[in-house]
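Format notes (please read before filing issues)

Several people have asked whether sequences and structure tokens are stored in separate files. They are not. Every record keeps both together, in the order shown below: the sequence lines, then the token lines. Line labels are part of the format and must not be stripped during preprocessing.
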Amino acid sequence: MKQAIIGFLLAVTMLGWGTSALASSMKGKSLKVTATAYNSVRAQTNANPSIAAWGDRLKPGMKVIAVSRDLLRMGIGHGTKVKISGLPGEYVVLDKMNKRWTRKIDIYMGKDIQAAKNWGRRSVTITVIDS
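Then the structure lines:
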């Protein structure tokens, strides 16, 4: 039993090292993705629409994105800063999307549902600024 626990802890530790090495290898990389938009409303999220997947509190005006799980596996994880082609400023990854999506980001647009609809679905390039 003791050996199993030690093995598990060692595997978890190694996994953590691999994740940070993967994240730092993404810095400066660009990736073409599909971009949609979402809002802090129950119809689009869940019972507490202002709380993101990792527990961050979202407020209108924040430059935040959610990323698909495949992007997480590539090293674009919680707290990663990216630039999005066609949009000013930097965006921070504070949310993650449902498992069914791939190569996709969702741009947070507060409670402005019309802005999200106007954005629609676009192909953009994201560039990792800091991971």
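For reference, the curators noted about this record: Residues 2-26 form the longest helix (25 residues). The CA atoms of residues 15 and 53 lie 21 Å apart.
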